[in-house]
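Notes continue from the previous slide.

Worked example: a multi-chain complex. Inputs as given:
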Amino acid sequence: MVEFLQFTLSGVVFGMIYAAIALSLVLIWRGTRLLNFAQGGMAMLTTYVAIEVIYHTHSYWAGFVVALVAGLVLGAASELTVIRPTAGRPELNSVIVTIGLLILIEGLAGIFFGAQYRSFPAAFSVTGLKVGGTPLGVSRFDVFTAAAVLATTLILAATFRYTSAGLRMRAAAFNATIARLSGIRVARVLTVGWALAGLLGALAGVLVSPSTFLYPNSMDAIFVLGFTAAVIGGLDSPTGAVVGGLLLGIGLNYVAGYWNSNLTSLVALGILVAVLMIRPNGLFASARMRRV
Amino acid sequence: MAIIVAVIVAFLSIKLNAFRDYQIAQIAVEVTAVAGITVLTGLSGQISLGHAAFMAIGAYTAALVLLHLNWPFYLVLVIAAAVTAVAGAVVGIAAARLHGPYLAGATLLLGIALPSLALAYPGTFGGEQGLNVIFTTPAFLGVNFPPTRWQAWVSAAVALIVLVLLANLTQSRIGRNWRAVRDNDVAAALDGINVAAARVRAFVVSAACAGLAGALLAVITGTVAPGGFTLTLSIALLTAAVIGGLGSLPGAVWGSLVIVLVPTYVTDVATSHGLSSTVGANIPIAAYGVVLILVMLVFPQGIQGGLLRLISAFLGPDQKSRIRRTAPTPYVTPSADQAPASQHEKEGSS
Amino acid sequence: MKKSQRLRWQAAAIMTSALLGVAACSSSSSSSSSSSSSAGSSSAALTASAPGITPTTITIGSHQPLTGPAAPGYSEIAPASTAYFDYVNANGGIYGRKIVYKYLDDGYDPTKTASVVRQLVLQDNIYALFNGLGTPTHLAAVSFLNSEKIPDVFVASGCECWNAPSTYPETYGWQLDYISEGKILGQYIKQHFAGKKIGFFYQNDEFGQDGVKGLLDEIPASMVVSKQSYVPTNVNVGPAVAALRASGAQVVVSFSIPAFTALLKLTSLKLGYNPTLAVSDVGSDPITLSGLLEAFAKQGGATVNGNQLTNGIITDEYLPALSSTDSWYTLFKKIHDQYEPKAPLDGNFFYGMAVAYTFVQAMFKAGRNPTRADLTNAIDGGLPQGPMVAPFAYSSSNHLGVTGAYMGTIQNGVVVQQGSVLTTDTTATGPIATYTGSEEQAPASGIPSASS
């Protein structure tokens, strides 16, 4: 019973990381109808930036903030330089461009930061929390991780729903032509969307790197599960991203704990296929399905 | 025509050194697999980010048959292709209802999850260190015939056969059905085409190609292990198809040349400039990323499309239009602008 | 149909030109194999006695994971070997020849390994393959190397599969194999923790599985309450550690790489679980572990300290401890500071230099104008143990490397030896003996003498 609690709680923490990546993918999908395969790589790069800042200033929070800012900048810069030129072209081209971006980022990280593990600090203590002597399987830092992702999600949701900037973004995603006719600068909105996605990715990076150690490929596996979470939840739905992330995080923990840790990716595949068979556009899909 | 190319390949493989023979074999393997993907994604509009899984199925089938049954090589290839085709049918049936990024996600995870079966059942599949594959040159060639040359011949022959078969297939009614389904599946259904069957058929064909490629890979490298069928391989296959020119068979050749030759070339350049081997190992990776981005920005229809445009610049108008019809066709997410107004509004934004 | 015919001609033309393009950028070198007789008197002229050997150079190759998920840690080894070779080259070389070490990246992907090894042999004409890293990767190269009769020396892997003189006569191990290591660790656990509950934490590949096999040769199965495995691609070891804790294991024996040893420690901390840890040599280097855990030491109000977390870890070692009282450490530190000062001088670096030292010893023994067979014959005749704490097993019937190790515990970032060096073999019932010989001291010049 204790293990069940531990699996569930630590599953929530990992799940929120996947949710952060999933949310960044959803943001980009809703805005530009593209899959950003470089999201994990961008998160890794901003985390390297953070660790250099932390190393030189000896302040964790300085690094944290710089990472988030770097995420904004990197996201916007990517959209402006390599994604914008592919607009109007076949979508698969943009996907290949993001893959190229991912490969480029990983190569650059290897060149400039080296291939060795870097230890990334946690904001708070990593000693486990206990309730009456029973270890819960999570630490203060884990609680911070889940809370930070949740807070960011809620802030973004509120921004979308209650501010005019958010309204503009929703309009541009819904129908770019009409939005333009309404005077919305759609191009700028797209850039902002990518920038916010970059921020979410950077957040995921600094939160998960204490557990994965930082090296050029450290975000690859996290990205795959984040992508899976986004697909499970439905690429149009931020709620779906969070639900998908939690489902994967907790579910895979149960599989690893009670069954066989070698089977986690197969089970993830099973969950994905099961969900998509019932709802081919994800759990929270809104688009009408055509049966052909 | 194929015979001419075969003779040229054989001639080259004798003239060039043994390592180039190996590269010819590598290129042929990639061509076999990439041709399958370019048909699947370019012609029938279904994206696959996990084709390395099919290569793995073909490779492990070949390895297991050779290990336990020791049947002749051509039979092993046929069995590998057949088994993978069945797997392709299964995946295709599951995938027939999925579009765009959802299909991408499912195939991505398939590509990652399937090789982990080898780790979960190490007794049969050899675990992480994999299985050994022994492949000998036939006796009639004599004892001094270099094995790498024989591998190059066999792989090139298989690749050529696959290309010829696919060329015929794409010109046939099946190929036309694929294009119809890709461009507008509602219209195709109204036209009486069985959309789901066409989609599954595409998966079967491309999986069989990948399975063949995997079996060949097992033979030329001498080993099958899960570490050889990574996400990187799946992505390399797709990028090769797109870079070469999606939907075009010559494009499959271009793309394969790029992914086999460019990294080696750049590594050699980097190390010959005295850069440390570790930095030198990352430069080809960064350079490959740059190549992908540049080719997509400059040649949106891939190398084949770019070449055809160049050629058509020198031709007259009716020849130009004929070229345009054979040019690689762009891949567009089928249900891209489909969500109607009311649905979107209802969904809101979290 | 005309269109399809034209397509086919297009395809043919393109493929032909492509292949011609490949031909054009190829180098026309082919592997030659001229070998002349080897040994001569010390004043004999240097000749090109084998492929890869010229009067001035010896070219060797390797496949290493320089990129990809396996690169952290392992990518330090080849630069360390290069540093030692540079030192030897600057101080007379091997009978005056300089060693050229060309190592290529295989990203720990066996398909790529097959390709780069063929490139090294068929195009770069290496004399021998040195220190190929990884078990699944090297398995992709071993048949080819043996069929081409390329010496395949000192594989960087503890698999006992390299000990196959009849099927792979060119292949030699070097480091302590995982089964022997498991036996030595297991015996220590059996002797010092009798009656306690033991748990295993191991990497789910041949490294971990062989280690467990060795452990179970010594530890009675009744003592083992839990066996949990992990794969390097999945950093979430929470469920595994929770299972270990739930089983009540008081001692955990870990066959893990350093990253996962660190994760084991951190996750145990999170679960309030504090077993005694015994870790394989592969994953216990104190400097690497401290580096991985260092970020957790620098926090305001933090209760964890990098070095503290490694104190008390039990491990085995077949190389000397990295302490200034050891002559090998002094020598390697001097070379490190001169040739690779920016790299950390940790267990991986030490490994790279030590295996390079053994290679240089073997090359000196092979003679002034060695053929490829001279190298393998030299190793078959046995090699002095050099920096190793126990003897090598090399003979014409045994291609395994070092035969033993000493047990130790980590105190303040250094492994402190407990007891004497123990030697054993890979069989289930082979005894574990105390090694009565002594360690060799590093030569004053830093280069092994030409006469072994």
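Summary box: Residues 178-317 of chain C form a domain with the Rossmann fold fold (CATH 3.40.50.2300). Residues 2-24 of chain C form the longest helix (23 residues).
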